[in-house]
Amino acid sequence: MVTYTEKENDKKISSSFIYFFGSFGGILFGYDIGVMTGALPFLQEDWGMQGNAGIIGWITSAVMFGAIFGGALAGQLSDKLGRRQMILISALIFVAGSVLSGIVPDYGQYYLIAIRMLLGIAVGAASALVPAYMSEMAPARLRGRLSGINQTMIVSGMLLSYIVDFLLKGFPETLAWRLMLGLAAVPAVILFFGVLHLPESPRFLVRRNNIEAARIILGYIRPQNEIEGELRQIRETVQAEESACRQNSWHTLLSDKYRSLVVAGIGVAAFQQFQGANAIFYYIPLIVEKATGHAASSQLMWPIIQGILLVVGSLVFLVIADKFNRCTLLKIGGTIMGLSFILPAIINSIMPGTNPMMIVFFLCIYVAFYSFTWAPLTWVIVGEIFPLAIRGRASGMATSFNWIGSFLVGLLFPIMTASMPQEIVFAIFGIICILGVAFVTQFVPETRGHTLEEIEAKGTKGEALVRESL
């Protein structure tokens, strides 16, 4: 167990440092899910895999397959070892997986798939741990904005991978994709040494009965007049849930007490991926190739455009995060995203000769709205909606469902586009977007401006969490 002394309080860690490195795992998350976008065209050429949609889908989606298990495993272990310790372990897996990806033997498709599954365990762990850590460190009034930093880190990592891919495109094919994959080890090392200096979550420490350590850490990130009140509130919640925690199992997630909050959190996480965003992020060069007839390896500027839209959108979210209700933003974003996917199919059916680049234009609209609604808000809600007694397991479960969606989209998209027009494939995703809006309207409570303890107290009693303003 990590312990603290009064003397260590003199070595105060700045809140900015805590929030920056607390969310830095998102950089690795983003780099590893984005890098294959540019590496895949070179890998296809190097290993002669053109037309083999199944292998292409597996290599691309192997990270997401591993993440399914990484999210669930990290959720359980973080309740025993702590959020910080698990982020450190994830960083080490990132380093090992990145290096191994860069030195994979020639024509080692199945070896590369296995290594990317290993990387996926770390990616899934980061996607579960970072939102949980950030939500537990952030004050209620800033939780949406600070948790949104995680999304800014993710999309910054994606943009970084796109830029690296673009800069390396002039290298020989076999060297280009190896460098693209292997360079992920650099931010992983930075994450490891940064997290070494981070404190543990005060809520986790209270659960481990390390009250003084929790008080010291709250002193880093809260005004002095708020420390004792928040500590008391955390202790009361922990004490109330203590007996339940001892008896909790996976079945507890579906008990009458927690079911509505668990369904809401897991549902939002699943819909985020089944809406098809990662089909764009993983395959945009191939999408443009199919629309224009030009080689995918010459289309690496398009991922950068998408990455810029994502980063700008994440910054917009940081400004509006705590000014608008979570559900309002999800419904607006989901509606525009759905229309952006459905309209190309409608237009093409009315005017068959329409420029095929029209679909890329609508995809940019989709990405712009996704970037400041569903992309960041999913992780804000997952980080704040689950009660403390089940937060680790439920967050891990939500993350796993998110990665199941990501895995299936990554695996099936090249197969679907090989058998039907692209606009029809995206129209299917558009319908899922509209269903996501209906789900939010029916099942997801509003959480903006409420403390984690208020959300738990009302949610477990079935009471509504509402705010009068947008």
TrEMBL record:
Major localisation: membrane
Membrane topology: Multi-pass membrane protein
Molecular function terms from GO: carbohydrate:proton symporter activity
Signal peptide start and end residues: none
SUPFAM superfamilies, per the entry: MFS general substrate transporter (SSF103473)
Domain of life: Bacteria
Domain Major facilitator superfamily (MFS) profile: residue ranges: 18-448
Gene Ontology CC terms, in alphabetical order: plasma membrane
InterPro entries linked to this entry: MFS_dom, MFS_sugar_transport-like, MFS_Sugar_Transporters, MFS_trans_sf, Sugar/inositol_transpt, Sugar_transporter_CS
Stretches that traverse the bilayer: 17-43, 55-74, 86-104, 110-134, 146-164, 176-198, 261-284, 304-321, 328-347, 359-382, 394-418, 424-444
Gene3D superfamilies named among the record's database cross-references: MFS general substrate transporter like domains
Cellular compartment(s): Cell membrane
Alphabetized UniProt keyword annotations: Membrane, Transmembrane, Transmembrane helix, Transport
Family from the record: Belongs to the major facilitator superfamily. Sugar transporter (TC 2.A.1.1) family.
Protein's recorded name: MFS transporter
Organism of derivation: Megasphaera cerevisiae DSM 20462
